[in-house]
Amino acid sequence: MYLCFYQSNKKLNIMKSFSKLLVAILLCSSVNAQMNSKEIDSLVNYAMSKFNVAGAAVAVVKDGKIIHKKGYGVKSIESKRPVNEHTQFAIASNSKAFTTAALAILVEEGKIKWLDKVKDHIPEFTMYNKYVEDNFNIQDLVTHRSGLPLGMGDLMFFPDGSDFTIDDLLSNFKHFKPESAFRTKWDYDNLLYLVAGELIARKSGMTWESFIKTRILVPLNMDNSYASLDQIKDTSNLSASHSTETGTIRVIPTFKEMINGAAGGIFSNVDDLCQWMLLQLNRGKYGEGLSKQLFTGLNHKEMWKIHTVMGVNPNPRYNSHFSGYGLGWFLSDVKGNMKVEHTGGLPGMLSNTVMIPDLNLGIVILTNTSNDGGGLFSSVANAIVDRYLELDDFKWVDKYAAYFKQRISGNDDFTKKVWKDVSVADVSNIKPENYIGSYKDSWFGGMEVFKNNDKLYIKSLRSPKLNGELQYYKDHTFAVKWEYQDMNADAFVTFTFDDMGKAQNIKIKGISSNIDFSFDFQHLDLKRVN
């Protein structure tokens, strides 16, 4: 208030000085908010020391430039060869944004419209009722709002090695039971992305894999990225997959996508994915001087628009107000800035992409170890984002490391108790002949209960890795340890009987509360057929 007593030129000089001070403060804040490659390197190395991860790769882009790209650890604990910025990892569900970008390209070519009915392009497409089937549009395929429950039908391709085809998939939706009303609730769905991949193939005249390669990877010079495992001819820089499910880290087979890779089939590296993030941050533009365009800003906006509303994390640290799913991306706000992200997970491979468009910032983290890799990619990404948001050091790595240790310990207690109970269960009253037979589910097909060396076994007829000994637990429930042990998928198998004491139905559910949702055993309704 006292400024009004100064002469006008004095007031001007004071205001100029104040303005210079303010600019200096802002510049200082801006400098403090930056992270250089050395600091990122230190953060990742610390995280590698805290998590049981064989290898990882991290890249950061800022203001149109790559400021960090580097590999950590080893591609395989057997070969001990180091990860570098070109090492290929399965990016899993981070492939979904490539699928929506492919759809955007077809929209711009006039071959489809976002709101076209799926049946107009794939007449044999089915759904759980006629209204939903007739009104299901292309955006419904990629926004997780179908009304189906989480992971419905994923057992058709999880674990890999089954014989289900796209024809099976398209006809099986009519057998699924919805959990919510159409377009009212978000529930993650992989199968509908496979339908989107089939639609891309039919409208482009080439496979989804060929389209992704020729129309996206090649133009962006993503020379060491591949739309499928089969496309990788030189595997010398391909990371192995690892698991810590059994307590110690071990190499497991690389998961191979079936039907098509639209939900999670791409293999890439952090060097190439920098080009993908720059494309996204530049709203579809790429190349020297951003002179080329893969898709228009209008379609970019469509992909980064919330189509399915989700719950908001009340964490006051970020003061978030909205959260939802766009077209292949999770969308939210952090401290007044838009956040665009997606994670991906397959057996032994985990990935994380995070972008803050308002800060022109992009982060990608690839890991080659199930379980602990998620702690690494979450904590490192959060720490980098926090730095650019000028937040205090929240010790994300330490917090996630403690959380993972506690979660694994708690889960092990229950699982260990189950198998201990199995080991001492009284099996004297078990009559194998009452369980033996063929059972069938309307969409998953047949499962057989049979006797082998005086022991009961169960096996899937279409997914051969799902077979194992039935070990009596209690009441009418057995526990099965599948031949497949790449992920935690062991299950309870419960029988119901007719008046003659003959088993007629089977229900299955995972033993661990931490089982991946793609092992959707609970959706099976197996009925005796023989």
What is the typical, i.e. mean, pLDDT?
92
Strand content: 15-25%
User: What portion of residues is helical?
Assistant: 25-40%
Structural class: alpha+beta
Give the beta-strand count. 22
The tally of helices reads: 13
Categorize the overall geometry.
globular
Radius of gyration: 26 Å
Can you tell me the residue ranges where pLDDT is under 50 for at least 5 consecutive residues? 1-31
Distance between the amino and carboxyl termini? 92 Å
Summarize the model shown.
The chain is of the alpha+beta class and 530 residues long.
Kindly describe this structure.
This protein is α+β, with helices and mostly antiparallel strands. The protein contains 13 helices and 22 strands. It has an eight-stranded antiparallel β-sheet with strand order 2-1-14-13-12-11-10-9, with helices on both faces. Strands 15-16-17-18-19-20-21-22 form an eight-stranded antiparallel barrel. A hairpin with a 2-residue loop joins β1 and β2. The longest helix is centred in the last third of the chain and has 29 residues.
Summarize this structure as a short list of keywords or feature phrases.
530 residues; alpha+beta; eight-stranded antiparallel beta sheet; eight-stranded antiparallel barrel; 13 helices; 22 strands; 31% helix; 22% strand; globular; disordered N terminus
